[in-house]
Amino acid sequence: MAGIFQRSLRLRTALRHLSPQSPQSPLSWTVTGRHTPLDLHCSFLPSTSRQFAVCSRKLHTGADRPSPAAAPDRLPFSRITQEDLAFFRKILPGRAVTDPDLLESSNVDWLKSVKGESEFTSFHLKIYFLVVIIFNSSILTSSAGSRGNTGLVGGSVPVYDEIILSTALMNNILTFDSISGILTCQAGCVLENLSLYLEDREYIMPLDLGAKGSCHIGGNVATNAGGLRLLRYGSLRGTVLGLEVVLADGRVLDCLATLRKDNTGYDLKQLFIGSEGTLGVITSVSILCPRKPKSVNVVFLGCETFEQLLKTFQLSRGMLGEILSAFEFLDSECMRLLNTHLKLRNPISDCPFYVVIETSGSDSTHDGEKLHNFLEEAMTSSLVTDGTVATEDSKIKALWSMRERVTEALTHDGFTYKYDISLPVERIYQLVTDMREHLGNRAKSVVGYGHVGDGNLHLNVTSPAKDPALLAAIEPFVYEWTASCNGSISAEHGLGLKKRNYIYYSKPSQAVALMGNIKAMLDPKGILNPYKTLPDDLK
Ligand SMILES: O=C(O)CC[C@@H](O)C(=O)O
Ligand SMILES: [Zn+2]
User: Fold this and answer.
1) Nearest ligand, CA 153
2) How many C-beta atoms lie closer than 10 Å to residue 411's C-beta?
3) The domain that contains 373 carries what CATH number?
4) Which end of the chain, N or C, is less packed with Cβ atoms under 10 Å?
C-alpha cells in the first residue's frame, strides 16, 4: 500500500513539475551528377546475366524452408585479380582499399551474424563506372544501399567477394532552404550530423534512430528506415522529395526534386526507397524537414497489463492530439536485460510493461497543461501505476536510452534471433506471449518492445549460442502467426539476406514476380547487391 502511495506520489510530483508555469584505370574521365561530384566506393566482376522468372505463390514451410541466413550458391561473377587491383590503385590512389582491418569491419554486420569475404573496397564512384562500363560485368554490395553496416537483416554486407562501394566520403550538405525546410545532401551524411546541422537552424530530421551516430542518410532511404518519430512525421516514402541515383548501367538518374507536389507521371524515386541497394546506388537525397519543436517532454510510465498500455495509447492520442510525437514500449524482460547488461537503473518501480511517450510542440505552457491532464487521467483511471516526467535534455536522453538501448542490451545476452513484425496494434504483444509459451525453456530470453504507435513489434529471442534447433522452433512459427493476422514479416528493417525467402508470407506471388521484372529491367545482370531482398526462387 505504501508502495502504491509512493508511486503515485512520484507521479504527482512529476505532474507538479509540469505545472503550466514551468517552461520548458587508365581513364582520366570524371563522371559527375548534377549536384554531386560522385565520389563513392565499390566491388565486382560478373560474367553472366540473371533472368528473373515469374513464379507462383509459395509459402515456405517445413522441409522446403531455406535457412534465413543461408545464401544461395555464389553466382558466376568474375573474381577480382591482382592486376585489377593494381589498375584501380593506379587510377584512384588511396581510394581503392584492400587493407585487411578495414575489410574485416566492412565484411561483417554489426551483429556479427553475416560475414562476407570481399577483398576490395573503394571510396570512389569512378570505380563503379569503370566496372560497369569497361568490364561491363560488375557486382557490388553497396554501403550506399545499406545503413553503414548498422542494418539488422544482413543487407549491407557482402555474401561472397563482392566489391564494397562506400558513400562515406560523400558527406556534404548541398542546400538547405530555411523557408520550406527542404534539405538536399549527399548519401554518406551521417544522420546525427544532419540533425545537428538542422537543429542550429531551428529544424530537425523527420527520422530518428538508435543508430543515428553511424548510419548514413543514403542507407536510411535505401532501407526505408522507420525509427522513433514515424508516428508523428510519417515514413521516408512521404518525407523524401527527391533522389539522385546511379543505375546499374552507369547512368545517373536525376530525380532530385525539391517540390512538395509533383504529379508528372510515375514517382520513380519510390522504387529506390526501401530497395536495399538492389536497383541503384543512391547518391543524393532531398528531404522535407519539420521545424524544431520549442517544447519537448518525455514521460516514462509503467502499466500492469498490455491492455492497459493500449488504453493508455488511445487516451494519449485523444488527449495529447497533435503534440504526441512518440509512443514506444518495452516489457519487463527488456528492463531486466537493461539492468543486467548495461547497468541502467529502472527510473520507476517494477512493472510488466513500460511506455515512453514524447510530446513535441510549440508552446511549453500549452503542452505542459495537456500532458498534465493526460497523466492525471491515466493515473486516476489506473491505466498507469507509476511514472516519471522529463523536461530537461539530460533526463530526456536518460529516459529515451531505456528504449533505445534495448538492442544493445540484447547483444550482451547471447545470440539474438530478431523479428520485426507489423501487426494490428491490439495483437502485437500476443505474439510475444505465444512465442514464450511455444518455446518453453528452449530460449534464454524472449522479449518484446517497439513502436506501439506504428503497430510495429520487435520480438527478439536469445540463446547462449547460435542454436539451429531453436531457430527451427521459432521459424516458420513466427511467420505463420504473422501471416494469419495479415501482418508484415518486416515492418522497417527490410529483407536483406536473412528474410528474403520469407517474402511470400507478406506479399502475393504476383507482386514478387513484378518486383523480379523491375529488377531485371533496372539491373539485368544482377550486379547490384546480389543475394538480397528478392527470394532465391526468382533467379
Ligand atoms: O533490435 C531490434 O530488433 C530493433 C532495432 C530498432 O528498430 C529499434 O526500434 O530499436
Ligand atoms: Zn524499430
Assistant:
1) 1
2) 15
3) 3.30.70.2190
4) N
